[in-house]
Design a protein that fits this description.
The chain is 23% helix and 25% strand. The chain has 132 residues and is of the alpha+beta class. The protein starts with 5 loop residues before the first strand and ends with a strand.
């Protein structure tokens, strides 16, 4: 991952591609549930991006992990919520902000037309900026 940039809303013009994190941390769909438990024990980690190669399988949050009792091997791909909110690189930052304002979490994956993960839009409400 590169250095984080903070982009104030007033400077967020153009497209989501300009305000997204380009290399978000991803987790393999075959990784065990214990990986999610360990990652999500950090209060700064809110959402895990689960991929099968470059394709986004879905996301895993605390609610999926906490609500799942280990009764045999469970992978992140098994837990991943597919079909959740997504953005496209060509969407506007205003669209991203509107979508995130309806969500409990201010993080939304960015995928291309083939469903490949290309980034993550993150909104820092306290500072009023995108984290790229």
């Amino acid at each position: 991952m590169g250095e984080k940039r903070h982009i104030p809303l007033a400077e967020a013009t153009g497209t989501v591609e300009q305000v997204m994190m380009r290399e978000p941390r991803v987790h393999d769909a075959d990784a065990p549930i214990d990986v999610a438990r360990a990652e999500l024990s950090n209060p700064k980690v809110k959402l895990l991006l689960v991929c099968d190669g470059p394709r986004l399988v879905g996301t895993v949050g605390r609610e999926q992990v906490e609500g799942h009792a280990s009764a045999g091997p469970v992978s992140l791909g098994d837990l991943a919520v597919n079909g959740g909110p997504r953005l496209r690189p060509q969407d506007s930052p205003a669209r991203a902000l509107e979508l995130m304002s309806r969500l409990a979490d201010h993080r939304v994956p960015v995928v291309d037309d083939e469903g490949q993960l290309v980034g993550l839009v993150c909104w820092n409400e306290r500072h009023g900026c995108f984290c790229a």
